[in-house]
Design goal:
Number of strands: 11
Helix content: under 10%
Radius of gyration: 13 Å
Mean pLDDT: 96
Structural class: mainly beta
Length: about 130
C-alpha cells in the first residue's frame, strides 16, 4: 500500500526553523519525483519545493528560495524539508507529494502529482 506520512510540523516563532519529514512506504522514492506543497487558509495549494527522481535536480518557489532545502535519504525512504528563517506567511498545512511515473518535478502546478500525504500543520507566530 502506497503511503506518504508527514511529520515535524508545529508552532515556531518568526525566524525559527523546522524540519519536515515524509516517510514513504509501498514504493521506492528514488523512482519518482517528490515534492512539498502547502495550503494556507483561504488559499489554493501551492508548490514549495521538489526533487527529481534521480535527485540531481531541485526546484523551489521564489518565496522560499534561500530559506528552505529539500533532501532525501534513500536508505530511510524519506524526504525532508528543512525550513529556516520562517515567516508568518509560511503558515500553512504542508503536504508531501509523489509525482506520477515519468513526470518531472515542478512547483508551478500540482497536476502531475499522483499521491498526497495527509499534511502537517506549520504555524509561524510570536
Amino acid at each position: 500500500q502506497l503511503l506518504l506520512v508527514e511529520s515535524g510540523g508545529g508552532l515556531v516563532q518568526p525566524g525559527g526553523a523546522l524540519r519536515l519529514s515524509c516517510a514513504a512506504s509501498g514504493f521506492t522514492l528514488d523512482s519518482y519525483a517528490i515534492g512539498w506543497f502547502r495550503q494556507a487558509p483561504g488559499k489554493e495549494r501551492a508548490g514549495v519545493s521538489c526533487m527529481s527522481s534521480s535527485g540531481d535536480r531541485t526546484s523551489y518557489a521564489d518565496s522560499v528560495k534561500g530559506r528552505f532545502t529539500i533532501s532525501r535519504d534513500s536508505a530511510k525512504n524519506t524526504v525532508y524539508l528543512q525550513m529556516n528563517s520562517l515567516k508568518p506567511e509560511d503558515t500553512a498545512v504542508y503536504y508531501c507529494a509523489r509525482f506520477r511515473a515519468g513526470r518531472g518535478c515542478t512547483v508551478a502546478a500540482s497536476t502531475g502529482v499522483g499521491s498526497w500525504g495527509q499534511g502537517t500543520q506549520v504555524t509561524v507566530s510570536s
